Task: inverse folding
């Protein structure tokens, strides 16, 4: 059972092909983006070319950071341990370095979870190791929920609960992340506002919702209390 959130399409881990059109990857386009004069198509073409040219470097860095996190990150080690407890003794359902794959993605997502594939990490969308840690933690909460609660991600209420829990427990909605990387400066109810915003966006993008934000908000509201308060496998919100 796969998470129906549009999964970023992984590209083969290769360097740029000879036929790659590099005409958009120029200083002129770079400065037009900085000054805000570039069109959406020009921006997309520039970043697509940049990501293709840097694919090998980005994936190599992602793999190195992934190995470090599985060895030293408290939240990644904790989530792996609790996922392992839910699976068979042979470890066949474990989330580990072998089924967390760093790839170049053509979407703006930083990652995705699939029960058969494992976790896809979009190496070209990562800012730093901390961003990777938040992304891995988010997707590992999805993996835990899939194994522990048998949630149906095609059910919008289940999908909303999955996103509420993942955004709450992964650390991606902590105040410093919101303030410094997303420009969200609210102080009161900051965590709740971030979690709700991200859950509504995710639910609205699912096929059963078809971009209906009002419907997505109703679904999120209907499960909010029980899902936001459910911190398993943590005793409380970790960070």
Result:
């Amino acid at each position: 059972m796969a998470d129906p959130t549009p999964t970023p399409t992984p590209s083969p881990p290769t360097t740029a092909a000879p036929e790659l059109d590099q005409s958009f990857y120029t200083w002129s386009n770079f400065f037009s983006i900085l000054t805000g004069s570039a069109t959406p198509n020009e921006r997309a073409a520039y970043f697509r070319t940049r990501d293709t040219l840097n694919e090998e470097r980005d994936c190599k860095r992602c793999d190195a950071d992934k190995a470090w996190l599985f060895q030293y990150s408290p939240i990644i080690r904790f989530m792996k341990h609790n996922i392992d407890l839910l699976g068979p003794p042979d470890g066949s359902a474990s989330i580990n370095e072998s089924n967390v794959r760093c790839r170049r993605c053509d979407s703006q997502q930083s990652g995705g979870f699939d029960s058969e594939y494992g976790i896809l990490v979009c190496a070209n969308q990562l800012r730093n190791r901390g961003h990777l840690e938040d992304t891995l933690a988010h997707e590992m909460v999805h993996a835990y929920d899939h194994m522990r609660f048998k949630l149906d991600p095609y059910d919008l209420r289940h999908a909303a609960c999955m996103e509420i829990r993942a955004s709450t427990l992964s650390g991606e909605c902590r105040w410093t992340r919101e303030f410094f990387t997303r420009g969200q400066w609210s102080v009161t109810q900051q965590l709740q506002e971030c979690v709700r915003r991200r859950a509504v966006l995710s639910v609205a993008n699912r096929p059963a919702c078809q971009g209906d934000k009002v419907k997505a908000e109703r679904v999120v509201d209907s499960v909010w209390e029980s899902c936001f308060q459910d911190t398993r496998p943590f005793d409380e919100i970790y960070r």
